[in-house]
Amino acid sequence: xxxxxxxxxxxxxxxxxxxxxxxxxxxxxxxxxxxxxxxxxxxxxxxxxxxxxxxxxxxxxxxxxxxxxxxxxxxxxxxxxxxxxxxxxxxxxxxx
Length: 96
Description:
This protein has helices at residues 7-22, 24-32, 34-40, 74-78, and strands at residues 48-53, 61-66, 94-95. By secondary structure, the protein is α+β, with helices and mostly antiparallel strands. It has one domain (7-95).
């Protein structure tokens, strides 16, 4: 299992995000399918939700949330698909 809180992963993702921010085509691919794009950089994060949002005037919002091993956790029940990045519970995610 990938440790989403490791320094090495944070550094690698930081480098990837810099490349993505400077390449509009890569950014488009990343927003469309973040897991596939990360895999192209040899970063595989199984059993995790990758949350990516683009808000003009700000850096990309990127977060990794470990999927829980329990079904129907309270966070899954409360969360709807239309929430913005400001509403995600940050304590449950590794944010970059």
